[in-house]
Amino acid sequence: MAICGPKLSICCSIISVWGIVQLVIMGGLFWAKSAALVDDIPEFEIESPEGDKYDEWHKKYFEKMEAAYDSNASNCWICAGLYVVSLLFSLSQLYLHKRRQS
Questions:
Q1: What predicted TM-score, i.e. pTM, was given to this entire model?
Q2: Membrane-spanning residues where (predicted)?
Q3: Nearest in space to 85 (alpha carbons), one of 19, 11, 4
Q4: What is the mean pLDDT for each group of 10 consecutive residues in the chain (102 residues)?
């Protein structure tokens, strides 16, 4: 049963392909810890170092930053997977319309 028309199916397919490509690339860049995407990392707070504990603070800061990069990368890949589902649905709708026309 066709739910959406052929033009909408084509439009959604194109948008889905674009979203998949963009999110896979962004996920790869987050996974590679690209410095250009540092503004897109959620903010977090770590208590200021006291005395000689700067090295420990520095280590905790970078551990949290790496975890935030990894979290953003997995979020991008999950969203890309949802776009794959959207693409499959759009293509199935397009197939149903093509089959009905012939």
A1: 0.83
A2: 12-32, 72-96
A3: 19
A4: 91 98 98 91 75 78 92 97 98 93 80
